[in-house]
Amino acid sequence: MIRHVENQDKESGYTYENQLLEAAKKYMIFLIGLFVASLGVAFSTKAGLGTSPVSSIPYSISLISSIFTFGGWLNLLSVIQIGTQIVLLKGKCNYVEIAIQTVLAFVYGYLTDFSCGLIKNLTVPSYYMQVVFMLLGCFILSFGIWIQFKGGVAMLPGEAMNRAISKVTGKRYEDIKVFFDILYIVISAIICLTFLHELKGVREGSIFAAFAVGNIIRFMNHIYDSKIRYGRRK
């Protein structure tokens, strides 16, 4: 009887350790995705053709006000997006996930400032190179978001808000993302034209990203799912 209990404890302990390792692995994957996404935003910003749509409002405001850094304004937008989720999901809202999102959002804000500083010495001498940086930024951002999905632990507030709206409306996540990306661009354009009298924070790169990022994520999901199905057949 005593041996049986000891064996159960060992098995339970082993399972618990496995769960901890699995959780640590998932969060590590997510944090990698977070850094990759922040690097994508940094490249998009460096291109000078308008940053990624979800970052366009914070970036535009950072050009007007120095109260917060780019990452700081990004955090403020995250708080609004978290509040939107709570209102939409109501009783179905997972407050543990909300708490995790809040922490990760502030980490992402820091990483965005860090990534922008990381490539600040890179030069973009021509419009051709601006386009290259813009395309690179879109792909890196999409890849970062896709990695976050595969981590399967949480999402950044902006993406989680899109997911919440998708659940409530029954619309596809990718379509919701494209809609809000366009909305962010419109709001950013209004801010820039009103206070800067020019489209500095949002340009053709922002519009391209609004349509490209969601579709790139969809393509990555298709490739990944195809490989999974092919692997099962073998």
Give the helix/strand layout:
Elements: H1 2-47, H2 53-64, H3 70-89, H4 95-118, H5 127-151, H6 157-169, H7 173-195, H8 204-233
Helix pairs in contact: 1-4, 1-5, 2-3, 2-7, 3-4, 3-6, 5-8, 6-7, 7-8
Describe the fold and architecture:
The chain is mostly helical and 234 residues long. It has one domain (2-233). Helices cover 82% and strands 0% of the residues. It is built from 8 helices and no strands. The chain has helices at 2-47, 53-64, 70-89, 95-118, 127-151, 157-169, 173-195, 204-233. α1 (2-47) crosses α4 (95-118), α2 crosses α3 (70-89) and α3 packs antiparallel against α4 (95-118). The longest helix is centred in the N-terminal third of the chain and has 46 residues, at 2-47. The N and C termini lie far apart (45 Å).
List keywords for this structure.
234 residues; mainly alpha; 0% strand; globular
- Bin the helical content: over 70%
Largest sheet: none
The helix/strand order is HHHHHHHH
Which class do the helix and strand fractions yield?
Answer: mainly alpha
Number of helices: 8
Distance between the termini: 45 Å
Point out poorly predicted stretches.
Answer: 1-6
Rg from Cα: 20 Å
Query: Which oligomerization state do the chains in this entry correspond to?
Result: single chain
Mean pLDDT: 86
> How many separate domains make up the residues?
1
| Secondary structure tally: strands | 0
Portion in strands: under 5%
Q: Give the overall shape, derived from the CA principal axes.
A: globular
